[in-house]
Amino acid sequence: MIIRSINLETVCGVTSKLPENDKPEIAFAGKSNVGKSSLINGLMNRKSYARISAKPGKTQTINFYNINEQMYLVDLPGYGYAKVSASEKEKWGKMIERYLHQSKQLKAVFLLIDIRHAPGNNDKIMYHWILEQGYKPIIIATKLDKIKRSQIQKQLKILREGLEVLPGTEIIPYSSVTKQGREEIWNKIETEFLT
Ligand code: GTP
Ligand code: MG
């Protein structure tokens, strides 16, 4: 994808009305701090257009990035952030659920999981929820630069088994430091979801 223009077009909080976009949307879900906003920056060739933070819980809204007036990359708040009250968590959860359920233009949900860790309960719930909603889940194993090359296959196996993925489920390793995996992700978006 050649990036000609990017624009943070819509920011939705808990009480906001969701936009009725007329172009395809690709959403990124995952635990807080897993690297969703960093991945979106990487895809857009920007360092910090999407706000990122070393502290979890940075993205608290649903952010729609218009790419080339052609499609949207959708940054979702992370789940499982311990420092947020239970009621706050529930509100975000509902907001994410509402979006995934209501959007007419959502074409795919990428689920991000840190390659260093076994998937948690929330990751499993999200994975199966994506499936139930009829989307083909694509998993991105983030922070690839944090492990040794020799560890990759072992970690991917832990990920596959932990999520109990369906046979043939794709997992794309990605690093926002080296940008390894970027082309593969764009390729997938362009060939499978924008045509
Ligand atoms: P929330 O908005 O809180 O849900 O988090 P997020 O999933 O958007 O994570 P974010 O992109 O803000 O990144 C969290 C932290 O992880 C930041 O300090 C990033 O610099 C770091 N990070 C993200 N991706 C990578 C990666 O591929 N490699 C390394 N080494 N660090 C990463
Ligand atoms: Mg974020």
From TrEMBL:
InterPro entries, per the entry: G_ENGB_dom, GTP-bd, GTP-bd_ribosome_bio_YsxC, P-loop_NTPase
Single GO MF descriptor: metal ion binding
Top-level division of the source organism's lineage: Bacteria
Gene3D superfamilies: P-loop containing nucleotide triphosphate hydrolases
CDD domains: YihA_EngB
One Pfam family named in its UniProt record: MMR_HSR1
GO biological process, any: division septum assembly
SUPFAM superfamilies for this protein: P-loop containing nucleoside triphosphate hydrolases
Residue ranges constituting the EngB-type G domain according to the UniProt record: 22-195
Record function comment: Necessary for normal cell division and for the maintenance of normal septation.
UniProt similarity note: Belongs to the TRAFAC class TrmE-Era-EngA-EngB-Septin-like GTPase superfamily. EngB GTPase family.
HAMAP family for the chain: GTPase_EngB
Name of the featured protein: Probable GTP-binding protein EngB
Lineage: Bacteria, Bacillati, Bacillota, Clostridia, Lachnospirales
Gene: engB
